Structures are given as C-alpha cells and as structure tokens.
Amino acid sequence: LRYADELKGEGNDHFRARRWEDALATYRSALGRLPKRKAVRKPEPHLDEDELSPEHSSSQSSNEKSKDQDEEILTEEEVQVAKARSVLNANIGACYVKLSEHKEAVNACTEALLDDPHYIKALQRRAASNELLNTWSSLSSAQEDYNTLLSILPNSSNDSKEVQRALRLLKPRAEAAQKQETAEMMDKLKGLGNNILGNFGLSTDNFQFVPNGQGGYSMNFSR
C-alpha cells in the first residue's frame, strides 16, 4: 500500500504536468503493486479526497454458509486496498480521457466502480466518455450512471444540477441513436434476406409487416 501510494503521487505529478502517458504508466505500475480484487462485499462509499483532482441453496450446510459469509467480509486492510485500487483505476480513466481513448476510459472507470460502486468521479468520467462514444448502448449506459449520481449527490448541489441538465440533453440523443442503429440493422437484415430470397425470385418487398393491435406484428405475403 505504501509503495503504491508513492507511485500514485508520482503519477499525480506527471498528470499535473500534462504528461498523460507517463502518468498512465505510473498509475498502472502502482496498481500492479496491489492485490487483485476478490469476490467480496464492496466497501462503503468514500469521498474523493485521495483522487487526483480538486442468496445460498437450501442443501448447503451451516458450516459452508458461515465460511461464505466470512469470505464476504473485508478486513480493514482489504478496505484500504480496495479504495486504493478504485482511486488508481479512476486516475487511469482520467489519463485515457486526456488521451481521447474513451473506450479505455470507460473500462478503467468500470474497474474502479467494481471496488466502489458509488465513486462519484468514476461515475462522472464513465458517463462523459460514454457520451463521447455516442452509440445507443453507450448513451444508455451514460443515462444509467447519471441516474445513479442523482441518487448519491445532494439535490441542491451544483453537480446534481449539472447531471440533471446532462440527462435532459441525453434523452433525445439516445432516442435518435436507437432509431438510427435500428434502421441500419434492418437495412442489413433486408439485404441478407434479399440475397437469400433472390434464389426463389422473391425479395423482402413480398413480405409486409403490419401491427396486429396487440403490440406485435403480422406478416403478409404478396406477389
């Protein structure tokens, strides 16, 4: 933990000096000094002061249950390690943001959130990077993160107001991306269908899909 913390400090110095690649390498080195994450109960949410910026089956025996429950409890040292991993992964995400590698930034912030699901900075960065990826899936993920933030942040805070604003702007973008990607998918399926049906002198134009009034569609065939 001490060595990882020293390396984190070095990484912070690189980051402040805008040496993004050096900061990234140093944060990764610090992360490598920490034990890997185990499938355990998550620690309590923490503030961002260390961050770089201002069910069992019925057949299971009681002994096995007790063992599993013991394995889920984090020691004080494990809590510290989890917190350190979370901060370093979030900082790695910040480096990727600066390098405009937003898919990698999303992955790094996801790692941070595995150790601390309520890490505000990691949620903010992941949402922002998913917005820049600008796909239906990424925009939907950004909406989820913003909603999580609203459940954490005080209603009167400036951050909460910014998140509310981002959600309002994000909704029409997500809907537009959904329509566009659905249309593109349907065009590809239509092209595939025409390649197959062409062997029988048919095309997808011979099949019409009409609403059945029950939330689904009926298919009609016509020459």
Describe the structure.
The chain is mostly helical and 223 residues long. Helix content is 66%, strand content 4%. The chain has a two-stranded antiparallel sheet with strand order 1-2. α7 (136-152) packs antiparallel against α8. The longest helix has 40 residues, at 158-197. Mean pLDDT is 81; it is low at 54-71.
What features would you highlight for this structure?
223 residues; mainly alpha; two-stranded antiparallel sheet; 66% helix; TPR_rpt; TPR_domain_protein; TPR-like protein
> Roughly what fraction of the amino acids lie in strands?
under 5%
Order of helices and strands: HHHHHHHHEE
Shape: elongated
State mean pLDDT (0 to 100 scale). 81
Assembly classification: single chain
Organism: Lentinula aciculospora
Protein name: TPR-like protein
InterPro entries: TPR-like_helical_dom_sf, TPR_domain_protein, TPR_rpt
Region (Disordered): 34-73
Layout of secondary structure:
Blueprint: H1 2-16, H2 20-32, H3 62-72, H4 76-98, H5 102-115, H6 120-133, H7 136-152, H8 158-197, E1 207-211, E2 217-221
Antiparallel strand pairs: 1-2
Helix pairs in contact: 1-2, 2-4, 4-5, 4-6, 5-6, 6-7, 7-8
